[in-house]
Specification:
- It comes from Microbacterium barkeri.
- This is Peptide chain release factor 1 (ERF1).
- InterPro entries: BaeRF_family11 (IPR041638).
- This protein has 370 residues and is an alpha+beta fold.
- The chain has three domains: 9-125, eRF1 domain 1 (Translation, Eukaryotic Peptide Chain Release Factor Subunit 1, Chain A, 2-Layer Sandwich), CATH 3.30.960; 132-260; 280-362, Ribosomal protein L30/S12 (60s Ribosomal Protein L30, Chain: A).
- It is 36% helix and 21% strand.
- The chain contains ten helices and 16 strands.
- The chain has helices at 9-17, 37-57, 62-74, 79-83, 120-125, 189-206, 219-228, 248-279, 287-295, 329-339; strands at 23-29, 88-94, 97-103, 110-114, 132-138, 141-147, 153-156, 169-171, 177-179, 213-217, 283-284, 299-305, 313-314, 320-321, 343-347, 358-362.
- A four-stranded antiparallel β-sheet has the order 3-2-1-4. It has a four-stranded mixed β-sheet with strand order 7-6-5-10, sandwiched between helices. A four-stranded mixed β-sheet has the order 11-16-12-15.
- α1 (9-17) crosses α10.
- The longest helix has 32 residues, at 248-279.
- The radius of gyration is 26 Å and the shape is flat.
């Protein structure tokens, strides 16, 4: 599993509310491979130098400049932080604080200095899971593989009894062992269930809750495994090939296809529900209406384009007004939604409706301010 730092709502709200003229944000590509860490540290040193230059250009007091740079450089010496890296890192610093996050997906390299932190990438971590785990299971094979966000495959060894395959052994009248012997419909049902229970207990020890698990399983074990399964995200769709016939390339292709179909189906289902609620006045993708609903604590769910950047801010009446260079309207809306207990999701623009950067499902209808 890739290391990921996921902030809770309280921490996100604190970061969204933060204001200081010497607030620095650094986003960089990283790597879980230890051999790459020195390269990432060099890139981070260069980024910190850029922060120092920008702080000076903004006329920040010298002591505050030094404090920000000092806090950022603390990360370079944080061995615990570097021991387990992920795909990207996000550093936030002001004279009186430092925050460091490891993100499991690529981000665009960024160095920014302003009055607020740029934390859009953090919002993606709340919905992000490693793509999936795939279990290849037959009477002769039990293999668990993680399909990571970048498409790579990582095998996770299963600690199974060395003699597990003997579950299927049965002595005949001469005392000889016949493996995989064909029997009646109920002949080896208990053996299949025992075998699958042992495997699934080891699988759930490794696969985190909520992370999709895809089966590539022989027909004779499929029903037994599903009957024994306790993982909360075992997918109904399985890879339609015998597990012993798959190489890693095909395994990855088949798993990605299943996940893509699952995402498309979930998005279409959400869009259909959104349309029904909009006809009742309980959903909207119009910016002015979303803003008003956020100010009224009326948004149950907000989805936003993770790549969009809208100028402006919300005033106390829920109206969009112009602001200075650090204005971030989407972040203002997100803060209002989180503060009122709403759900926030970062998605692609094509997963929204009408080409709009925001879509909100409402608890109750809200009039648009004039």
């Amino acid at each position: 599993m890739l290391t990921v730092d996921i902030p809770d709502d309280d921490r996100l709200l604190d970061l969204l509310a933060h204001r200081h003229p010497a607030s620095a944000t650094i986003a960089l590509e990283s790597s879980p491979v230890p051999a790459d860490h020195e390269r990432v540290r060099i890139a981070l040193r260069d980024a910190i130098d850029q922060v120092a230059d920008r702080l000076a250009q903004r006329g920040i007091p010298t002591e505050e400049q030094r404090a920000v740079v000092r806090r950022l450089r603390e990360t370079l010496d944080d061995d615990g932080f570097w021991e387990h890296q992920s795909r990207s890192l996000l550093l936030l610093a002001s004279p009186d604080r430092r925050e460091a996050f490891r993100l499991p997906f690529p981000v665009q390299d960024q160095v920014r200095v302003g009055s607020r932190f740029a934390i859009r990438a953090l919002l993606r971590t709340r919905d992000h899971h490693p793509c999936a785990f795939v279990l290849q299971l037959s009477k002769h094979r039990a293999r668990l593989t993680e399909l990571q966000a970048d498409g790579s495959l990582v095998e996770h060894p299963l600690e199974l009894p060395d003699d597990l395959d003997l579950v299927f052994a049965r002595a005949d009248n001469d005392g000889q062992l016949d493996r995989d012997r064909a029997r009646g419909a109920d002949g080896d049902q208990n053996e299949r269930e025992r075998f699958c229970r042992t495997v699934q207990d080891e699988v759930v020890r490794i696969v985190p809750r909520g992370v999709p698990l895809i089966l590539s399983i022989s027909d004779d074990l499929a029903t037994a495994y599903r009957a024994q399964n306790t993982h909360d995200a075992l997918l109904e769709t399985a890879i339609p090939a015998h597990p012993d016939s798959l190489d890693d390339r095909r395994l990855g292709d088949e798993a990605r296809a299943i996940l893509a179909d699952r995402r498309r189906a979930a998005t279409e289902q959400w869009k259909e529900r959104f349309g029904e609620l909009r006809s009742q006045g309980l959903a909207t993708s119009r910016l002015e209406e979303v803003a008003a609903a956020a100010a009224a604590a009326a948004i149950a769910e907000l989805r936003f384009d993770r790549a969009a950047d809208l100028p402006g801010k919300l005033d106390e009446f829920g109206r969009v007004v112009e602001d200075g260079e650090d204005a971030a309207l989407i972040e203002d809306v997100i803060a209002r939604v989180l503060a009122s207990g709403g759900e926030v999701r970062a998605v692609r623009r094509e997963d929204l409706t009408d080409g709009a950067p925001l879509a909100a499902v409402l608890r109750f209808a809200v009039p648009t301010p004039r």
